[in-house]
Write a structure and sequence with these properties.
single chain; 387 residues; alpha/beta; six-stranded parallel beta sheet; 12 strands; 49% helix; globular
């Protein structure tokens, strides 16, 4: 009788049941843990073939190093290559990294050969057949505006300016603030490419100075990218509302603090934050689901894409090459390359019920054939155990 592989996995409460059911399907013997103490206990009792971590936790990795056991990290947050860079002198041949963002993956492979591109997925609990009727709304917009980050970033920068150690440092910070704000304004309508960094570089050249000399420019630009994404999500909602479609808006309470929300028409119904386990039914009951990937992560696929495909939902997303590699534009989803394009696509697809159904069905079949959670976990296990 074939011996089942034994693994220990980080039971992230949000997706632990998805991992568990998927591991059961592929006949893997597994032992979950949620902290370092539990991981040590699992290793001592069961001697797993490797430890699977969701996103990088240095304490789990260090335990694996201590016990000389293989460690695998499935990164579903961008920036994993930064951790690999930080620990590059200590990372072992027994360490494996699976990254969901293509640019991150390209950097990681140059730092560590056991780095692999692997988009995320969704568990079987999200599966649902596409529907032809009985919809509760025209559009489901399931998205936080990141407004809290925007306020915190602005407040932190104001504090740093006020507490600058000298006049030159204060002027540098003010210039950083002005340059990044201008870059956000210039790039604000671009939803298919990350042009913030080159725009900031051009503006610095025009100023004739480099105010980032004592700062992490990459980090600063990424933070401003989050502010830009917040602005874009608000603009996206306004464009959708202007179509007159009946919209169900799901997100945290910070939506209510945005200017655009305060001026919305009656066709937008705010539903508060969507619980994770309710996303399947929310998406399936809308004629159209909207995705807006942050431009700084445009080469990644948010898990929401797989939620939509698994739940038999028709979705429209800002175009990206990474998305089009997995789900064909016009066949498995509808794309938009500008907010004007979004407005027209929404009107077009709302008027074509049969086309929407067929596209949703294609995406659902594509998900079942190539992108299930168990297929993703099987790949990780095959790579780690056979390498």
């Amino acid at each position: 009788m074939e011996k089942l592989p034994v693994i220990a996995y980080h039971a992230d409460p949000l997706i632990a049941d998805e991992f568990t059911s998927s591991l059961q399907k592929i006949r893997v013997k597994y032992f979950p843990f949620i902290n370092e103490e539990e991981l040590r206990s699992v290793i001592k009792q069961y001697s797993p073939a490797f430890v699977l971590d969701r996103n990088f936790h240095s304490d789990f990795w260090e335990v694996c190093c201590q016990y000389d056991i293989k460690y695998a990290c499935w990164a579903t947050d961008s920036g994993m290559s930064n951790f690999i860079q930080l620990y590059k002198d200590k990372i072992r041949d027994k360490d494996y990294f699976f990254l969901f963002e293509k640019n991150d993956y390209a950097i990681a492979t140059r730092l560590h050969p056991q780095s692999y591109y692997l988009p995320f997925s969704a568990g079987d609990k999200f599966l649902k057949e596409p529907r032809k009727d009985g919809f509760e709304c025209d559009i489901a917009f399931i998205m936080n505006p990141i407004y809290e980050y925007q306020k915190k970033i602005n407040d932190d920068l104001a504090t740093n300016i006020a507490n600058a150690p000298n006049e030159q440092a204060r002027k540098n910070l003010i210039l950083v603030q002005k340059i990044t704000e201008l870059a956000v304004d210039i790039c604000g309508q671009d939803i298919i490419g990350d042009k913030l960094t080159p725009t900031v570089d051009v503006l610095c050249q025009k100023c004739g100075v480099n105010p980032f000399v004592n700062m992490d420019k990459h980090k600063s630009v990424r933070l401003m990218g989050m502010i830009m994404s917040s602005n874009q999500r608000q603009l996206c909602l306004k464009v959708l509302a202007d179509t007159g479609a009946q919209i169900h808006l799901y997100g945290n309470h910070h939506w209510k603090a945005t200017k655009v929300f305060k001026n919305l028409s009656d066709n937008v119904n705010y539903k508060a934050l969507a619980p994770y386990n309710s996303i399947r039914d929310i998406a399936n009951s809308a004629k159209i689901c909207i995705n807006l990937t942050q431009v700084q992560n445009i080469q990644s696929l948010p898990q929401r894409i797989f939620h939509f495909a698994a739940s038999g939902s028709f979705f429209i997303s800002n175009y990206s090459a990474a998305l089009n590699e997995l789900f064909a534009d016009g066949t498995c989803y509808g794309s938009y390359k500008s907010f004007d394009d979004l407005r027209e696509k929404v009107k077009y697809y709302l008027a074509n019920d049969e086309l929407r159904y067929n596209i949703a069905l294609n995406a659902h079949k594509e998900f079942l054939a190539k992108h299930t959670m168990d297929s993703r976990l099987s790949k990780i296990i095959d790579v780690v155990i056979t390498t």
